Amino acid sequence: MKLIRLEIPTLCDPQSDSECGYIDSDDEEQAWSGDQDNWDGDPGNEILKLLQAQPLLKELKLSDPELSARSAKCLQANLLASDVPSLKCVQAVPEVAMAFLQVAPRLESLGFVLEWWDDTRLSQMETKPAAARLSIGYFAIRVSYSDKGLWDNLAAVLSLFPNTQDLSVTIYSPTTDKTAKPAKYFFGKVLDSIYVLPSLRNIDVTFETPAPQTPNILEVDMQSLIDCKISCPMLETVVDPERRLWTFRPDHQVSAGFEAHLVGLLMEERLNPRALKDLPAPRDIV
């Protein structure tokens, strides 16, 4: 069977401290029942073999954030352009994702899956060829609300991909503590970082919380939306944490010269920012 899209949610990596598992047909996570102690192989090699058997693959999602450094190094050392001739989209831990960046000739969409930020990651990513990083038009990142290291370095990470036109930032907050910071705090953090993306046209900020019904937890003020457009003049749309789609209209009665216009609430199914390009643009969008 030749695949176009492939998601591998959990891998059994003997170099990782995490318990191995898999997703069953009922979408339930199960513990691995096999004798994993008898296998000391490298998932990086197995991923490589899988890719070599799927030359038509366009989208690859490795959701497991626990892939070991050994597996990442295997891919970095052995992955060839001929292994991924059709690949356009990769989502994985940064070390694995960057291995694809430097060899996949058609790659245009990159997503980082993070548990915690490591300062060494930034210096490693900066060594990748600039030409490869310039090919990325869609960049996605998922980050913990409490990962101060990543929030402090977010602008530097985004600046690695300066041609990004579509940006997706997912903040996950597992706490139900009523004193936890709401979405607007983190929306502000994102806002403070997007100035490094001069070509940005669409931004989608999602806030994952176990208590979405908490009053005002997903609320973002109007001025923050205006400030997004000021930071990135080419910006066309914003999807806020309440899953509302905004555009911008001229308004010469305000100092910014435009106002944020609510298009409507998105459906539950996540809208790919790339799909926004298929929407007819209002004639009066700035």
Summarize the structure in words:
This protein is α/β, with parallel strands linked by helices and 286 residues long. The chain contains eight helices and twelve strands. The protein has helices at 43-52, 69-78, 94-101, 119-126, 130-133, 148-159, 183-191, 222-231; strands at 5-8, 21-23, 29-31, 59-62, 89-92, 109-113, 138-144, 166-172, 202-208, 237-239, 244-250, 258-265. Strands 1-4-5-6-7-8-9-10-11-12 form a ten-stranded mixed sheet, with helices on one face. Strands 2-3 form a two-stranded antiparallel sheet. Strand 2 and strand 3 form a beta hairpin. The longest helix has 12 residues, at 148-159. The model is unreliable at 17-36 and 282-286 (pLDDT under 50).
Q: Enumerate how many helices there are, as a single number.
A: 8
Cross-sheet strand order for the largest sheet: 1-4-5-6-7-8-9-10-11-12
What is the strand tally? 12
Low-confidence stretches: 17-36, 282-286
Order of helices and strands: EEEHEHEHEHHEHEHEHEEE
Helix share bin: 10-25%
Radius of gyration: 20 Å
First CA to last CA: what distance? 47 Å
Q: Work out the strand percent.
A: 15-25%
Largest sheet: 10 strands, mixed
Shape: globular
